[in-house]
Write a sequence for this structure.
C-alpha cells in the first residue's frame, strides 16, 4: 500500500503574497545558491528554502538561520533565470518569524538589526563606535574582533564623534511608515 503525503500550500501562498514572488517558477537550478556570497554560513541554501516552502515546512523555514543570514545583495536575483527575488522572500520570512514569535535561527543578527535601527532613529545615521559597543554588550562578545575595530579606527574608517543628519524628522517619518510608531 502506498500512502500519499499531504502538503499544506497555505504557507507558500502566504509568502508569495507578502513577497510578490511566484515560487512555482523555480526549477531548482541552484543558480541563486551558487551566486550567494553567504551560502557557506547558511543552514539551508536559498533554493532549499524555496523547496521547503513548497513542501509546507513552515516551522523549519521560519526557524532557519538562512533567513537571517541573507544580506539582500541581489546576487541571487541576477543569477536566477526566472528572476525570482530571493531577498524579497527572505524579508517576508523574517516578518513571519517575528510575527509568530518563533525561535530566531540567528539571534545575534536580530540584535544587530535592532541596534542598527536604534542608531538610525537616534541620529538618522549610524554612529559606528556606539553601535558596535551596544551590539557587543548585547551579545556579550566584547573582544571577539577588537583587532579589526582598532585597525579601522587607526585607519580613519570610524568616526570618533557622532553626527546627526540635518532632517532627522524626515528619517523618523520614513521609519514610522516602515515599522510603525514607537
Amino acid at each position: 500500500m502506498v500512502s500519499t503525503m499531504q502538503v499544506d500550500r497555505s504557507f507558500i501562498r502566504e509568502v508569495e503574497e507578502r513577497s510578490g514572488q511566484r515560487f512555482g517558477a523555480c526549477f531548482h537550478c541552484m543558480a541563486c545558491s551558487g551566486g550567494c556570497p553567504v551560502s557557506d554560513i547558511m543552514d539551508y541554501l536559498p533554493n532549499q528554502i524555496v523547496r521547503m516552502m513548497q513542501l509546507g515546512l513552515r516551522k523549519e523555514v521560519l526557524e532557519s538561520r538562512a533567513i537571517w543570514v541573507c544580506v539582500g545583495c541581489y546576487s541571487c536575483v541576477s543569477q536566477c533565470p526566472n528572476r525570482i527575488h530571493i531577498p524579497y522572500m527572505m524579508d517576508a520570512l523574517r516578518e513571519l518569524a517575528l510575527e509568530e514569535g518563533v525561535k530566531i535561527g540567528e539571534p545575534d543578527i536580530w540584535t544587530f538589526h535592532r541596534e542598527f535601527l536604534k542608531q538610525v532613529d537616534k541620529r538618522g545615521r549610524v554612529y559606528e563606535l556606539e553601535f558596535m559597543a551596544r551590539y557587543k554588550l548585547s551579545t556579550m562578545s566584547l573582544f571577539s574582533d577588537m583587532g579589526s575595530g582598532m585597525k579601522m579606527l587607526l585607519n580613519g574608517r570610524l568616526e570618533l564623534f557622532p553626527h546627526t543628519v540635518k532632517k532627522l524628522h524626515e528619517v523618523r517619518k520614513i521609519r514610522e511608515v516602515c515599522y510603525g510608531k514607537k
Residues 107-179 form one domain. The chain has two domains: 9-100, 107-179. The mean pLDDT is 86. The chain has eleven helices and no strands.
